[in-house]
Design goal:
With 413 residues, the chain is of the alpha/beta class. It has 11 helices and 19 strands. The strands form 4 sheets. The protein has a 7-stranded mixed beta sheet with strand order 5-3-6-7-8-17-16, with helices on both faces. β18 and β19 form a beta hairpin. The longest helix is centred in the N-terminal third of the chain and has 19 residues. The radius of gyration is 23 Å and the shape is elongated. The N terminus is likely disordered.
């Protein structure tokens, strides 16, 4: 006989800090049901938004039974206490917020949290737990060897295994039930080629590498994707200290140059921007790059001026628009509950659990992984569009954001 339908959490979180930066958090193990978040009225938009973005699932099938979730995180258990570093604490807090939202939608959810200790021996012991085999979805582990072990475990049992932070190129398992939330370079390159083919098919393409293998590999993938869409002409430029990009640009009135550089080298990026600062005329330069630029340390007002001048575009799997009403609502609810501002990882925790819940509903509780290939789920920070890449299910949705009016805005909605 099935257990009563209820949401079970194993930790009652008590955070004293009111800022977004925290030291190591302490968790007391308590078997409780977290209360529905008490927040201002506008935060009810959280559940409304889930229904609006995924209109097929405004009602819940009461015959599905509970949605059973196993969460495997490195809790780093010490004598008498549970400790998480900031990344996993934020992710877990976001996950709890998502569970509340699913519950408000009418879902019955059972969650079991396990400590992996980032150790394969601990993961192996977890696989001996009878209740793990009854899971509909397993989120984690977050390290390669642990994921490999669980990948072999879930395949014959047809349990969806979610890798929250890694992409399919990082971990090379072969399993239709293995789901990667982060797109790989091939998906980034395809998204970029598709955007250019659709919006700038006649632009002059300048592909800039910093002479690193990573840059050259990405640009090779871009060329493959571009050729499939009819884009055939570009200039390759290796850019280092003392290089000059300007002779490679088309400078006629009305010309558009698209400069693509995947470099993660902040010094090279700054040199390129400074070089472009000296450009002028009736042409337009559009600069496209990857999300590593969002983590550069030495950005200032002058940097933002150069970003604005060169219409900086960034491809990223993560973007939460601070001006969007659902993001505003989530931030308010999160701060009310945890007395701090949600980090990127809190948004991911929320989106991952909500997306899996919606896919569970769509598949009528039978095969979450198969359901993932049949629909897209819009989250706060990205859309989840899982496709089988020959080895595993990979999220192929990539945000393209543009720096315009001195803030980033998503342009591929």
């Amino acid at each position: 006989m099935k257990a009563p339908c209820q949401l079970i959490a194993f930790f009652l979180i008590a955070l004293a800090s009111c800022g977004s930066t925290r030291t190591l958090n302490t968790f007391t193990p308590v078997a409780v049901e977290p209360p529905v978040t008490a927040v201002p009225t506008e935060t009810e938009l959280l559940t409304d938004t889930i229904a609006e973005k995924n209109p097929k699932k405004n009602t819940i099938n009461k015959n599905l039974g509970p949605f059973k979730v196993a969460v495997l995180l490195p809790l780093n258990i010490g004598p008498g206490e549970y400790k998480l570093d900031d990344v996993f604490a934020d992710y877990y807090e976001g996950l709890l917020m998502g569970l509340d939202s699913l519950k408000k939608l009418g879902m019955d959810v059972v969650v079991t949290v396990y400590d992996t200790k980032n150790d394969t021996a601990a993961v192996k012991k977890i696989t001996w737990k009878k209740e793990l085999a009854e899971s509909d979805v397993i989120i984690g582990p977050t390290f390669k060897n642990g994921h490999t072990m669980l990948s072999k475990y879930v395949q014959p049992r047809k349990i969806a295994l979610v890798s929250p932070f890694s992409n399919a190129n990082m971990w090379t398992d072969s399993n239709h039930y293995s789901m990667y939330c982060t797109p790989d370079d091939k998906s980034y390159a395809a998204a970029l080629a598709g955007h250019i083919a659709k919006h700038h098919p006649n632009a002059s393409l300048v592909l800039v590498n910093d002479n690193s293998k990573e840059d050259k590999d990405f640009l090779w993938r871009f060329k493959v994707a571009a050729r499939e869409l009819g884009l055939e002409k570009w200039k390759d430029v290796t850019y280092q200290k003392g290089s000059d990009i300007l002779p490679h640009l088309h400078k006629g009135d009305g010309d558009t140059n698209i400069i693509i550089t995947p470099t993660s080298n902040e010094k090279i990026a700054q040199l390129l921007l400074t070089n472009l600062k000296n450009d002028g005329g009736g042409h337009v330069n559009l600069l496209f790059t990857l999300e590593s630029w969002l983590n550069f340390k030495n950005t200032n007002y002058q940097t933002y001026e150069l970003w604005e001048q060169n219409h900086l575009h960034i491809l990223t799997h993560y973007f939460a628009d601070d001006y969007a009403r659902d993001v505003i609502a989530f931030k308010a609810a999160y701060k009310e509950r945890f007395a701090t501002i949600p980090s990127d990882f809190a948004f991911r925790g929320f989106d991952h659990i909500v997306a899996m819940g919606i896919l569970f509903m769509n598949g009528k509780g039978e095969d979450l992984a198969q359901s993932a290939e049949e629909m897209e789920v819009k989250g706060l920070h990205n859309t989840f569009k899982f496709r089988f890449n020959g080895r595993a299910l990979e999220n192929r949705s990539v945000n393209i954001i543009q720096f315009s009016e001195y803030r980033f805005q998503r342009i591929n909605k």
